[in-house]
Amino acid sequence: MALDSRVPQGPIKDKWTDYKNKINLVNPANKRHIDIIVVGTGLAGGSAAATLAELGYNVKAFAYQDSPRRAHSIAAQGGINAAKNYQGDGDSTYRLFYDTVKGGDYRSREANVYRLAEVSANIIDQCVAQGVPFARDYGGLLDNRSFGGVLVSRTFYAKGQTGQQLLLGAYSAMNRQIARGKIEMFNRHEMLDVVLVDGKARGIITRNLITGEIERHSAHAVVIASGGYGNVYFLSTNAMGSNVTAGWKIHKKGAYFANPCYTQIHPTCIPRSGDYQSKLTLMSESLRNDGRIWVPKNMEDVLAIREGKKKPTDLSEDERDYYLERRYPAFGNLVPRDVASRAAKERCDAGYGVNATGEAVYLDFAAAIDRYGKEQAKIHNIENASAAKIYELGQAIVEAKYGNLFQMYEKIVDQNPYETPMMIYPAVHYTMGGVWVDYNLMTTIPGCYCIGEANFSDHGANRLGASALMQGLADGYFVLPYTIGDYLADDIRTGKISTETPEFEAAEKEVKERIEFFVNNEGTNSVDYYHKKLGKIMWDKCGMSRNEKGLKEAIEEISQLRKDFWKNVSVPGGSEEYNEELAKAGRVADFLELGELFAKDALVREESCGGHFREESAEESGPQKGEAKRDDENFAFVSAWEYKGEPKEAVLHKEELEFNDIELKQRSYK
Questions:
Q1: 3-class DSSP state of 256
Q2: Are 256 and 436 in contact (CB under 8 A)?
Q3: Taking a C-beta distance cutoff of 8 angstroms, is the pair 589, 248 a contact?
Q4: Distance (Å, whole) CA 237 – CA 599
Q5: Letter string b/e over residues 249-274, b meaning 16 or more CB atoms within 10 A of that residue's CB
Q6: How far apart are CA 392 and CA 152, in angstroms?
Q7: Which letter does DSSP use for residue 360 in this model?
């Protein structure tokens, strides 16, 4: 199958408008005869389900959680980007477009990114209308803050709980449609396969996670909005239930999987504290607006801090290495996530890590508290304010901006981050790779769409902070509702799709056989045993840096681990009941296939770009020494993998990337 991105012709600023003017539409009276399945009800799936139902389609929405409110989108903290230029600091649609392409290390499709920047302002208006309580400035206008990789303030936020508030907005819109009967909501249902009829996606097979019942659901189109695959690493900032299963099932039925090696390591996470941990906790990137990142300059201070003989507050400014400010003076602590993560790893690998494991750096708010305190003293006309008063006033400002994040840190670490610097270390966070989609957001399976983090996205090889929420809501509210109509216009006379067909029968049989295998296999090892082993291989050999030797080893080790899994996995309990271990077994089985394809993709891409850092491809001299070195001549393409059985047999298809509106050049944040 030849890849066709279906990008419209014409100037980039006119593509989306001209495209919408010419696509096929579905008459409002005909929409009520068309069914759409949406798998996943986070920001992308929830906004899509609500908007499609509002348009008049009949929507079936599926969530493995007990409520759409529990989607992992709720965990997003720092904010959502939009080019509204409220700060008057030079932002524009073009600048958001440019920053996103540059931040993604020039590995994204220009037309999609420009469209994302174009509709970003509409998202904010939509969410304000829904009642999302964005922060406001002293004049009542919506406030903005900065995030990494940009030189403007374009991030709208609601304290440190922006994802939660945006999800509640989408959930409210969904509830309106559920009450009208336009959305049929299936909580605690997991999609286990897609059904193709005459080559088109016409339904899914699900398991009721409470009763174990296997169900058939039909529709004229299927939309996958199931989030990212970061849990392939076992330890990540993702919710423990987050998985790749929906995306992987459609991949095995013909949807190409793109750029699996593009995974984001977030620089500001609470460090791992032991082998018993099942997940990691994110500290929002917004903290880097005011927090300064450092390690001690001198090794004797590092050792003294590790041994408890010194506190970080004992070190003077001259004894601290603010390494991001030193290495990247133009952007300082607000360099993109991949750059900040590698810089932290470099310092810790050199022996300067400040916790017992040697895998932590400091995120310090003392300077911000002092700065804000002095500013507030002037505002309140307090002359000769004492140090204690300045601290009190400054802390109040920091608490107003980040209070819930500080509270969360203290609950987990049992240290007061107002009084002692936070300890942070990079951790797996977001996946830029995912199911390949064209300009319409349709996969290589006709009638099967993929939106939000589940697709290979608009973020290239690295996502800028606060752009995940932007992409999810753009796809759901403003892109998919247009493009899906162009496809469904041919289905207005199709009528109801029957589930009593050989295709549904075969898919259901396959799902049941797999479940029966798990509950009947008399193995000796738990599902987590395999998941942890996979995660260690992934982190050690496909983590913040990769090399040819390690990737070849990873491919073979994962292949062997998968064979052992199918022989020796043990799943307690039965299939006709609530059985979390059974659900987990299916998800880990898919991770064991994805992990191998991930390593294969990383091996083929013999360059460094964004979150994919090949040790053989680093700048060797000059001001960029040690930074990622792209190879635009040979690797300016999207890797789209076709399933052929074993992951090592997958076939690579290339979507060549064109850069007509942005100059292709090496990234620099110095």
A1: coil
A2: yes
A3: no
A4: 21
A5: bbbebbbbbbbbbbbbbbbbbbbbee
A6: 29
A7: -
CA 426 to mean position of chain CA atoms: 15
3-state secondary structure of 174: helix
How deeply is 518 buried, as exposed, middle or buried, from its count of CB atoms within 10 A (0-12, 13-18, 19+)?
buried
Can you give the pTM of this predicted structure? 0.97
Are 628 and 105 contacting, i.e. CB atoms less than 8 angstroms apart? Answer: yes
The one-letter amino acid code at 429 reads H
Contacts of 360 (CB under 8 A, 6+ apart): 271, 348, 353, 354, 423, 424, 425
Contacts of 316 (CB under 8 A, 6+ apart): none
CA dihedral 161→162→163→164, nearest 10 degrees, is 50
416: tokens are 């007061």
Q: Give 58's strand partners.
A: 35
**What whole-number distance in Å separates Cα of residue 515 and Cα of residue 391?**
59
Pairing of strands 257-258, 292-296: unpaired
| Rounded-to-5 percentages of helix, strand, coil across the chain | 45, 15, 40
DSSP designation for 497:
P
CA proximity to 595, closest of 648, 549, 638: 648
CA distances from 476 to 137, 197, 240, 482, 591 (A): 29, 25, 24, 10, 26
Would you state the structure tokens that stand for residue 576, as one six-digit string?
């006709």
Catalytic residue check, 614: no
Question: Which pLDDT score, from 0 to 100, does residue 274 have?
Answer: 77
Query: CA-to-CA distance for 100 and 110, rounded, in angstroms?
Result: 10
Which of 599, 618, 586 shows the shortest CA–CA distance to 521? Answer: 586
Q: Let me know the angle formed at the C-alpha of 376 by 370 and 379, rounded to the nearest 5 degrees.
A: 150
- Total residue count of the chain as it appears in this document: 670
| Residue 286 near residue 160, CB atoms below 8 Å | yes
Judge contact between 84 and 124, C-beta under 8 A: yes
What domains lie within the chain, and their CATH numbers?
Answer: 267-426 (3.90.700.10), 521-656 (1.20.58.100)
Best CA proximity match to 441, nearest among 25, 115, 145, 192:
115
Of the candidates 69, 207, 288, 337, the residue annotated as catalytic is 337
Single out the residue of 56, 74, 72 nearest to residue 64, CA to CA: 72
- Could you give the CA distance from residue 459 to residue 475 in angstroms, rounded to a whole number? 13
Q: How far apart are CA 452 and CA 435, in angstroms?
A: 10
The structure tokens listed for 53 are 């139902």
> Along the chain (670 residues), what's the average pLDDT of each consecutive run of 10 residues?
90 97 96 98 98 98 96 95 95 97 97 98 96 93 94 94 97 97 98 98 98 98 98 96 98 98 96 87 93 98 96 97 96 95 96 95 97 97 96 96 94 95 97 98 98 96 97 98 97 97 98 98 97 97 97 98 98 97 98 98 97 95 88 97 96 96 90
The answer to whether 262 and 107 are in contact (CB under 8 A) is yes
Phi first, then psi: give them for residue 107, nearest 5 degrees: -130, 30
The residues facing 8 across adjacent strands are none
